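Work Package 3 (structural annotation) set out to generate three-dimensional models for the target panel prioritized at the project kickoff. During this period the team completed the workflow that converts sequence records into C-alpha cells, so that structures can be stored uniformly alongside our sequence database. As a representative example, we reproduce one entry of 89 residues exactly as it appears in the project archive.
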Amino acid sequence: MTQPPRVLSKQEAANYCGCNTLAAFDQWRAKGIVPGPIPGTTRWDRKALDAALDRASGLVTASAPELNSYERWRAAEVAAGRLPPKAKS
C-alpha cells in the first residue's frame, strides 16, 4: 500500500482535505481550519494538514496529548468507516 506524497500542490491539498473547490479550501485557510503552504513554497505538508484536521475535528485538543501514529491511523480508518469505533471501557 502506498501513501500519498508528503508534499502536495494546492489542488492536491484541497482534494486531500475533501474540499470540492479551491475557493472552499481558501475559506478553510481563512478560517484557520487548515494551515497555509510550507513557508517559501506553494506546497502543503500532508502531515500538517492531518494535524490541523485532527484539531478541527476534536481528535486532538490543546489539553490532549498528540496522537501517536497508530492512533492517527486508527482515527482515520474509523472516520472512513473501515473500522468500528472503539468500545468504551
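The first strand starts at residue 7 and ends at 8.
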